[in-house]
């Protein structure tokens, strides 16, 4: 009877041991599945994060390109305005010089005419004085 009890105990122990091993294997598989799911989720999140970062980089690169293009256009426009302003200033200076020269010439001409008129008036005055002296002498 002892042998039967030992055999039965041994068999029960084997059954319990097998059940324990099977439960342990099931738990091990569940842990592995959970680890696999966590890893897949982390990889998915990392991919999503990378996509988001790439999209943001693309947005900022596009904005930077647009800004650079806008600045280049603005710089070109400013240079063209400055060039046009300088041209207008040169033209105005040239026109001013020409007008000034013209006015100076006219003033010189008028001065010469006035001097001629004055000279002839002085001559006329002297002739008149001479006539008057002769008349009253």
From TrEMBL:
Which keywords belong to this entry? Coiled coil
UniProt superkingdom: Eukaryota
Q: Which InterPro entries match?
A: CEP95
Cellular component annotations (GO), alphabetically ordered = centrosome; spindle pole
Q: Which residues form a coiled coil?
A: 68-117
The protein's name is Centrosomal protein
